[in-house]
Amino acid sequence: MTQNLKQQSSCKECCERCVGSLPWASLIATILLYMGVALFCGCGHEALSGTVTILQNYFEVIRAPGETLDVFTIIDILKYIIYGLAAGFFVFGVLLLVEGFFTTGAIRDLYGEFKITACGRCLTAFLMFLAYLFFLVWLGVTAFTGLPVFMYFNVWSMCQNTTLVEGANLCLDLRQFGAVTISEERKVCTGSEKFFKMCESNELDLTFHLFVCALAGAGAAVIAMVHFLMALAANWGYLKDASRMQKYEDIKSKEEQELHDIHSTRSKERLNAYT
């Protein structure tokens, strides 16, 4: 019995020491998530706007009339998705941060009036599922953002090495990227005036680096989700151990109360027998 008490006491002290770092882990993950989402949404939105300018000024692509699904409509849809990501992950980050602080407070106040419930453990498990799901989503977003970075890098490299490609007749055809239909011919060749104007303009260089920053922001969001998963898994483990400790303390208090009642009863019996 004494050995069990010592083990439970050591587990309690270990839990209290470890759980103190959980709010800071959640806070760091929240800051990293906000930085990544802000970088991705801001730079991605401006990069899409720069892409529209390049398509209209140098490739002479015009917006299709009506509700036809063209490259400009797809870009508008991507912008609305960015708006939704910014709003949704702001709320999600606040929720995870609050959960991290409340879970820590619940464990610290375990031996007071607060009691850990099954609802709290279910909430932590649900947030772990959401964090893992959003981790997969951000992995996909990162891979998708790498496509325009690769395409713009090729165009930017051609512009940076115009003297090397001057003799070669290389063309940038939008039909290869699915930006226009097969019947439309929208291309810019290396020897044309439009190609030199595009390379000398600020739109191409700025759009390329904005997409690079958006890719970095998506990568930061992935790291933040991994950090959140680690913090939530730690919270789940601490809650589970604290729940067992709570049951142990309840059983211990009942046994002590029973021993006290037995001792009081025996004392009364001895006093009655003496009198």
What is the fold's blueprint, element by element?
Blueprint: H1 2-19, H2 22-57, H3 71-108, H4 118-160, E1 171-173, E2 187-189, H5 193-200, H6 202-274
Antiparallel strand pairs: 1-2
Describe the structure.
The chain is built from 6 helices and 2 strands. The protein is mostly helical and 275 residues long. The chain has one domain. The chain has a two-stranded antiparallel ribbon. Helix 1 packs antiparallel against helix 6 (202-274) and helix 3 packs parallel to helix 6. Residues 1-21 and 110-115 have low confidence and may be disordered.
Question: What brief labels describe this structure?
Answer:
275 residues, mainly alpha, two-stranded antiparallel sheet, 79% helix, disordered N terminus
Give the count of structural domains.
1
H and E string: HHHHEEHH
Total beta strand runs: 2
Structural class: mainly alpha
* Largest pleated sheet: 2 strands, antiparallel
Order of strands, main sheet, comes to 1-2
The total count of helices amounts to 6
Short structural description:
With 275 residues, this protein is an all-alpha fold. It has helices spanning 2-19, 22-57, 71-108, 118-160, 193-200, 202-274; strands at residues 171-173, 187-189.
